[in-house]
Each structure stands twice: as C-alpha cells, then as structure tokens.
Amino acid sequence: MSLHTSSTSAVLAGARSASLSETDRLDASTDRSGYVSQSLPDGVVFAETTDDVVSTLRLATAHRTPIVTRGAGTGLAAGASARSGEVVLDVSRMNKILRIDPVEQLAVVEPGALNADLNAAVGEYGLFYAPDPASTSICSIGGNVATNAGGMRCAKYGVTRDAVLSLNVVLADGRQLRTGRETMKGVSGYDLNALIVGSEGTLGVVTEATLRLRPLPVATATVAAFFPDFATAAQAASAVIASRIQPSMLELIDGQTLEAIDMAMGTTYRSQGGAFLLAQTDGYGAHLEQDVLIEAIRPLATSIEKANDDEHAAELVTARREAIPCLEKLGRVSIGDIGVPRGRLAEVAVGLNDISERTGVRIYSVVHASDGNLHPMLVLNPEDSVTEGPAKVALGEMFYLAKSLGGTLTGEHGIGLLKRDWLLPELGEVSLDVMRSIKDAIDPHGLLNPGKAI
Amino acid sequence: MSLHTSSTSAVLAGARSASLSETDRLDASTDRSGYVSQSLPDGVVFAETTDDVVSTLRLATAHRTPIVTRGAGTGLAAGASARSGEVVLDVSRMNKILRIDPVEQLAVVEPGALNADLNAAVGEYGLFYAPDPASTSICSIGGNVATNAGGMRCAKYGVTRDAVLSLNVVLADGRQLRTGRETMKGVSGYDLNALIVGSEGTLGVVTEATLRLRPLPVATATVAAFFPDFATAAQAASAVIASRIQPSMLELIDGQTLEAIDMAMGTTYRSQGGAFLLAQTDGYGAHLEQDVLIEAIRPLATSIEKANDDEHAAELVTARREAIPCLEKLGRVSIGDIGVPRGRLAEVAVGLNDISERTGVRIYSVVHASDGNLHPMLVLNPEDSVTEGPAKVALGEMFYLAKSLGGTLTGEHGIGLLKRDWLLPELGEVSLDVMRSIKDAIDPHGLLNPGKAI
Ligand SMILES: Cc1cc2nc3c(=O)[nH]c(=O)nc-3n(C[C@H](O)[C@H](O)[C@H](O)COP(=O)(O)OP(=O)(O)OC[C@H]3O[C@@H](n4cnc5c(N)ncnc54)[C@H](O)[C@@H]3O)c2cc1C
Ligand SMILES: Cc1cc2nc3c(=O)[nH]c(=O)nc-3n(C[C@H](O)[C@H](O)[C@H](O)COP(=O)(O)OP(=O)(O)OC[C@H]3O[C@@H](n4cnc5c(N)ncnc54)[C@H](O)[C@@H]3O)c2cc1C
C-alpha cells in the first residue's frame, strides 16, 4: 500500500496538471453504472496533449503505477471507476476536432471530443458519424472507442468498430502505436484497430482517432407504433427483420418505461399502448421501405402513426434517448445490456418478467430491436447496491437468461468491474486465457485499468 | 534439417489421411500468386474433421513441426505456399455447409466450403453472403477468413471481417478457441474474431465459421460507362463518391485489360473506350441512386448504357470477374493490391504509367473504385520471376507510390511471403513489434505458417 502511494505520488508529481482534491478524486471513482467504489483514487492527471499522456505512462511504467484512463465518465460498466493506489488519467481536455475531410469522408479527433460535437461539426458538410449512443451529448469519442459503443443507428450503419479507420494509442511503456490506416480497406498485418476498440482502456490510451463518416441520408421516414405489450412488440420487431428491409432505427420501449418517460417529460405515451416501437428507414428507398415495414407490423399493432415532419420525429427520438435519465429520477438505476438472437426477443420479455417477480426488482426495458440488444434497467432504492443483494442476483439471472437463448452478457456497454463475474461462463477458459496472454504481451506489468474488462 | 524431417514424419505418420506424393507436394508448394517455391513441403495432411486438425496440431506441437494451413490455394500472396521442412494441413475436404438459419440470417460452414457454393445454398432462402472475391467459385471460406477477403460488393456490404460472427479455431497446441458470438452485437472481452480474420493462418486453423447473411436486394440497377482513359474514369469514380450515393459495385477496368478480356472472351469492349466503369446500385432506392450516379459521371463519359435486363448485367460482371484469368493467358501474372484514399485514384493512374515505363513491365489495372483498392497486374514472360528483377522492382515502386498518397500495400490479398519486404515501412517498428508479441503469445513455438503475414 505504502509502496503504491509513493509510486502514485511520483506520477502525480511528474504531471503538468494534476489534482489531489477530494472532489476530483470522488468524481473519478465512479461513472454512470451505479457502482460505488470502496475507496478513492490517489489523484487525477489531466492530459492536454499526447505528450502529456506519453510522459505520464512512462512514469507509470518506471514506478509500476496502475493507471485508469477516463473519458467523460458516462460508462455503464464501472470501466472508468478508480480506487486507492491508482492514478486516473483524464483525457477529457484533449477534445479538439483536428481535421474533417469531406472528400474522403473522414474525421480526425482527439479522444475527449464529445460524440454530439463531432456530429454537429461534420453535419455542416452533409456528413454524419454513425455510432450514436443515447449518451451522445455527454460521452467522448475515446470512451466510445474503448467500449466499442453502439447506439440506435448501428444495426444499419455499424458500431464504433466499423467506423474506426485508425488510432493513435499510447502503450503502457509510453511507446506510440498507430493502428489501421486512412484507406477504406487494408489487410497488412493483424487488425490492431479492432483489438484496441472495445478493450476498455486495458491495452493503451487512445489519443487520436481517424473515423469514417457517411453522407447524411437524403430522406428519413419515421413510424411510431403501439402494441398491447412488450412480447407483441417484440414479435413485431422480428416481423420487420423477416420482411428483409434494413431499418436505420428499430427501438422498443416497454410500458413501464413509457410511464417513467411520461412522468418525467409530461408526455402521454403510456396511455396509447403497453409497448412502443420507434422505427426509421432512410436513404433513397426510405418511403418504400417504410411501406413494407408498416405492412409487417400492422397485424400486431394497436396503432401506427407516420411522423411526417422532422419535428415530430425528433420528439420521438428524444423520448427514447432520454429513457435512462427519466428512470434515474425513480431511483438508482443499474442497466443491463444483454444481446440475444433477434428472433428471441419475445422469449426474453417473458424471462425478464419472471426474474422481476422472483427477485422483487423492478425491471424496465428499452431494446435495440434490430440487433437483439436489450437494456433491461433495474430501478433500485437509492440506498441499494448494484453489486450485491437482489440487484446482483437479477443481473446474474439476466445473463443466464441471455446465455440460455444463445446470447451474450453485454451488447455494447462492456464488462468493466460490474460484469466480471460472468465473463468466464460467457467466454470459456481458452478464450479468456488467450485474451490474458494478449494483455500480458502488450501491458506486461498490468498497469492499464487493472482488473477491468478481462 | 534432419531434425525437421523426422519431426514432419511423425506428424505425417500420425494423420488419418496424408500424402507424400510429389504431385500433392508440388501443388501445396504454391498458390495463384506466381510465386515459385525453391523446395517442396515434406507432405500433406488432409483433414476431414476438426478432430483431425486437433490431432495434427498436437503432434506438431509435440514435435515442433511447422504447419502451413491450406484452403483452396487461390491466394495471391503466397500465404499457403509451403517449403521443405513444413507439413501442409489441407482443410479443403472439410467443406460442409452445416446450418443455414434464415430467421437470424446466418450460416455455419466448414472452412473448405467454397464461397460460391455457400452463396448458391443461401440464395434459396433469398439471402446472400456479401464478401465476393472475383475467385468466388474457386476459393474457400476458410481462406477468405484467413485473408479477410474483399470483393466487388464490399464497399457497400463490408469485407469478410464484417461478415464473421463467430469462429472455431484450433490453436497451435490443439486447444479449441471459440471467438465472437452468434448475436449481431457483443463486446465481452477483446475482439478475437477480428484478430483471427486476416491473420493468414499464423494464429490458428479455422475449422468452422458462423457468417452473417443479408437479404438479397429487391432490385439491382447496372450501368456500363466508357471513358477516354483510366485517369478520366478514375475522376468519374471520385465524382460518384462525391455524389453521396452508395453503389454496391463500382469497378474500373483500364484499356489494356479490356483488350485482354476481348481477346480471351471474344467481346468488343476496347473498341468502345479507353477505360470502363461498371456501376451497380441496389435496394429499394436502386433506380433513384442510379439516376444520381449517371448525372455524376455524365460530363466525363464518352458513353453510358443502362443494362436493363439481368442477363446483360451478368455478362458485364462476368467480364470483370474474369479479368485475371484473361490476363493469365498473356503470361505469368503478378497482382498488385494497393489501396489509396478514394479521391486519389487518378494520381495512381499517372504513377503506374510511370512505373511501367521505368521498369519495362506491362501493367494492367482493375480497380475496386468505391474503396480505393487497385489491382495493378504485372504481366511477365512465363520464365520471369515475380520475386526478383523488374517485377520485384515494379511491385516495390507500386507500394511506395501508394504510401506517398497515404495508402497501403495490400487492400485485400494479404502479405504472405510475397510482400514481407514492405511490411516494416508500411507498419513501423512499434506496430510490427506488437503484432509479433501477439503471435508469440498465441503460437509460442512459432509453428503456424512461419515467416508469413507479419
Ligand atoms: C444516459 C446514458 C445513455 C447511454 N446510452 C448508450 C448507448 O446507447 N450505447 C452505448 O454503447 N453506450 C451508452 N451509454 C454508455 C456510455 O455512454 C458509453 O459506454 C460511452 O462510450 C462511454 O464514453 P465515456 O467517454 O463516458 O467513457 P468513460 O466512462 O470515461 O470510460 C469508459 C471506458 O473507456 C475507457 N476509456 C475512456 N477514454 C479512453 C481513452 N481515450 N483511451 C483508452 N480508454 C479509454 C475507460 O477506461 C473505461 O474503461 C449510455 C450512458 C448513459 C449515461
Ligand atoms: C482469379 C482470382 C481472383 C481473385 N479475386 C479476389 C478478390 O476479388 N478479392 C480478394 O480478396 N481475393 C481475391 N483473390 C485471392 C484469393 O482468392 C483470396 O485470397 C482467397 O481468400 C483465398 O482463399 P483460398 O481458400 O484459396 O486460400 P489459400 O490460398 O489456400 O490460403 C490463403 C491463406 O489463408 C490461410 N488459410 C486458408 N485456409 C485456412 C484456414 N481454414 N484456417 C487458417 N488459415 C487458412 C493460408 O495459410 C494462407 O495464408 C483472387 C484470386 C484469383 C486466383
């Protein structure tokens, strides 16, 4: 312990800008997962340049100091949560958009740039950056890269991994690694891009990202449909997939979550049905695809409405985006993130009901239906823990439910500290062993985000 | 050497089915790259099941025997070329399509299944497997996975990496690794899927692949356009990208290649222009996108023709697909595979002319224009080598040309033995060092495809 403390002091003392204040350390001990750290990190380094990151990591290697990289702290897996004996490396001040190339349709950004700020900047060129977590206005690109963030558009346009062309990564020993390339295609050597994306800060610190942009669609068509219940809406979502169109958004919200949204936002969604499906199609075929979509869900829906103007469509999307903050008004929220084969959403609905009844935990669900990724949200009393008691039991049962349906523990939020217990049953010995050998090869002293992700 | 020989004998003797015949060893010493091995491998093991692969690799580890995995042998980088002291593990007999799930839109296949056979099988369900190398009817899915194969549709639908959901991989020591998952999304642990894809048989042997399928597009619209020369056609391709549509195919063929196609196939393309652009759009917006495309290229084209029936469209696609075999009738062909930013294709055209003049090597080009991936093909005399003399010089200059334009050595064919000399200048020390440390971690005795890829 005292060894650690002296090692962290050396790293903190060597930084151009660092804080030992309790407020900063408290902030850096947690994220938006509901996870509460038992201790505070020893201090926070604020990096402003790649050189700052390099010099902090060189010191960290010299002194064997554990480093927790932090973006905007909106993570839902306690990936950025730091503890005593650790130094937090906060890169949120490195937030410049360095270059936008409208011809090649790419952007180069610093890691602290917010997802929404990037989209605002490239929007001026008629382009967009596809991965759009609901947290778009508060999360950083570096965090998106480190968690392989998804969102509502990704069934059609891909997740963060599909949008990353190249990264600059500072390794634990301070060396700089350039992954990928600026061209659309390339196969020289192993895919280190994909290895870093989703590695949750355990392999290196991302200090620059070259990202693929896309032309804004010429048209977007929005449908809002209501169903008697979650299971029927899930069936409708499966019918959309089976109809062979590719919606750009297919979001399902259950009745209880609609109630919470109504309560927080003054809307009246719940009165219109027991579950809600928000579907968008886009591009040159947007309206033709919309017709097919409507035919597919018609037999199951109690009401179907086209949002014919942009304002109405934006309202609906905002309601979906705000689901988590609305639920946070009801209590401490712990957010599940399971993925299942797309045809089995209705079965998950039944299973989640069951889990709620058995554990006594209230479960609210929003679902990225076109890729089978569900966010069952546990709403707890403010004093309840997310890492023990009924919440922990419910999270575990959710995982085994997903597993029994051929699914996964986490579709887009990551493992962090929160989900480590289920990583071995998910991945198996060999897979985890290979991952650990890669970690050892790249970060031999185990300094980067120890205990997280794998 | 004698040590090697005795170690290879043990592996060959332990296999259920193996061959020591000179014909089989000769076949296994080469691929379609034009690379000629100086020696023959010691023998070929024919695997029929995953267990066969496991037992061969266990023996290989016990006896420290180098193993070269072989699919269909259509590679263009000498990745499957094997030499004395090595045993070839041929998986082409493991060619079953194990499962097609039309609801989840996925297929599970053995590695030896041919790309075209998979597409024929899933076509019956109205689905397709997107990565479509021109070699579709002769290359294996395992080879596609190992090289991260691309093709003509991949600008819109992604390369092999984007289509792989999960793999079963036998590691050098015989352990079985399951990568990825069957769900559309998932972020638990590092992305071992992407690490294995494109690793050219150096990290493990793929014995099963779970692949994402897509609904066949409801409509496809084809345009054939001619231009005065390659540079003008390249400009037209850039104009298509700038017009913000997403063609599903945008293939450019230069005048000399048209001549070779005409000669081999009895067609008359060359008389219609000095360069040819084959463009397809598909989906619900196919015809609207086609109109935009035509407007974009009109100012540059000497003629533009819509292929209004499927037969005519298929003819055009076949001409493109057959370009390599047609050139092979003219001499030994060595195929470049450089990638550049999409807006710089016209500059490459100029640079390639230059290289041809300086080295005296005839260079023919076909281009996946929508992702900036060019295949400049060197046509040599049958007795010329692809690994020394003018061909080697020309390949090297092509790489430095691509590099000077911000591009890459290889867009989709891989490094193999053929392109190793340029890997360090492309990737840099740190990147190569990280890749080698991963290789050491996963294949500590360096038994799998030694000397290839990295
Ligand atoms: C209301 C709300 C809605 C959300 N909706 C979604 C959603 O739809 N989809 C989705 O995927 N997520 C969603 N999230 C989760 C979260 O926003 C994402 O995980 C996001 O990518 C985290 O970014 P961050 O900058 O906040 O990262 P942090 O929370 O700061 O860090 C997350 C992880 O990334 C690592 N990290 C951060 N920056 C770097 C870097 N530069 N280099 C290396 N490692 C780094 C950290 O160590 C940590 O492990 C939501 C969160 C909230 C609060
Ligand atoms: C006429 C022609 C056109 C072509 N067009 C294209 C094109 O458009 N796009 C494109 O990308 N390529 C193209 N190619 C190249 C080639 O077809 C691809 O690289 C293909 O993916 C190779 O598959 P294969 O089964 O023949 O592999 P092989 O040549 O047998 O092997 C290629 C590499 O993969 C490894 N490997 C093979 N199977 C396995 C396995 N099961 N597990 C682990 N490693 C394995 C080998 O060790 C080797 O390194 C073309 C080739 C020809 C001859």
UniProtKB/TrEMBL annotation, chains A, B:
Cross-referenced Pfam families: FAD-oxidase_C, FAD_binding_4
Keyword match Flavoprotein: yes
Gene3D superfamilies per UniProt: 3.30.465.10, 3.30.70.2740, Vanillyl-alcohol Oxidase, Chain A, domain 4
Keyword terms: FAD, Flavoprotein, Oxidoreductase
InterPro entries given in the database record: FAD-bd_oxidored_4_C, FAD-bd_PCMH, FAD-bd_PCMH-like_sf, FAD-bd_PCMH_sub2, FAD-linked_Oxase-like_C, FAD-linked_OxidoTrans_Type4, Oxid_FAD_bind_N, Vanillyl_alc_oxidase_C-sub2
FAD-binding PCMH-type domain boundaries: 37-216
Cofactor requirements of the protein: FAD
SUPFAM superfamilies membership: FAD-binding/transporter-associated domain-like, FAD-linked oxidases, C-terminal domain
PANTHER family linked: GLYCOLATE OXIDASE SUBUNIT GLCD
Protein's recorded name: FAD-binding oxidoreductase
Organism, as annotated: Arthrobacter flavus
